Amino acid sequence: MAAKLGILGSGNGSNMEAIADACQRGQLPAEVAIVLSDVSDAPILARARERGIQACQIDPGHFRSKLSDEAEQQIIDTLKAAQIDWVILAGFMRIIKSDFLRAYPERIVNIHPSLLPSFPGLNAPQQALDYGVGVTGTTVHIVDQGIDTGAIIAQEPVRVQSDDTPERLHQRIKETEHQLYPQALSELITGRIQVTGRTITRST
Ligand code: GRF
């Protein structure tokens, strides 16, 4: 049976669309069963609904960078009711706390627009330009209690160009993400990649 994915995002939803497209093409043996957002007018919700995917906003509570306990519980309950197997973060701008991690152990995945452990946190393309690196990229990782610190599943470099702005660099990173994220999820979901703590085992 196809794995059921629950996607959480706060913004545009281009990665959500890349994942949903890969499912439709049969490249990813999964189904995007639900999309949740902490932002009521986030384009990710409209883009999901256009595709016939159930999409809901959850009131995040009054913190800026985390969810209230109630909001987190509501998200967990919604995902469990939808029988979600994997939680996929795609531009979700809030920290995941331990109750949520315990509800989906090693089953919450994130994509970050840098080659971790360089440039974790906010505005990674801007951080890369400020530092002056020649190469940055994107990383798919398991979510743990830290910020962008979990076990690394896949990475892909993106070259920085001399006339890059943060927006232009981020756009090229996203184009790479749209290939990498579905591929990495396919390997995880089919068990070709196994995760134990920080150890990743690949079967041939
Ligand atoms: C991506 O660059 C992802 O790496 C980061 O947030 C961005 C989300 O973009 N975590 P989108 O909403 O998928 O277009």
In short:
Helices cover 34% and strands 25% of the residues. By secondary structure, the protein is α/β, with parallel strands linked by helices. Bound molecules: 5-O-phosphono-beta-D-ribofuranosylamine.
- Run of helices and strands: EHEHEHEHEHEEHEE
Mean pLDDT: 97
Q: What order do the strands of the largest sheet run in, or round the barrel if closed? A: 3-2-1-4-5-6-7
State the helix count: 6
Distance between the termini: 22 Å
Q: What small-molecule ligands were found?
A: 5-O-phosphono-beta-D-ribofuranosylamine
Rounded Rg: 16 Å
Q: Mind describing the biggest β-sheet?
A: 7 strands, mixed
Oligomer: single chain
What share of residues is helical? 25-40%
What's the total number of strands?
9
The secondary structure category is: alpha/beta
How much strand content do the residues show? 25-35%
- Shape, please? globular
Poorly predicted runs are none
Describe it:
By secondary structure, this protein is α/β, with parallel strands linked by helices. 34% of the residues lie in helices and 25% in strands. It is built from six helices and nine strands. The strands form two sheets. It has a seven-stranded mixed sheet with strand order 3-2-1-4-5-6-7. Helix 1 (14-24) runs parallel beside helix 6. It starts with a strand and ends with a strand. The protein binds 5-O-phosphono-beta-D-ribofuranosylamine. 5-O-phosphono-beta-D-ribofuranosylamine is lined by residues 9, 11-15, 44, 90-91, 111-113, 173-174, 177.
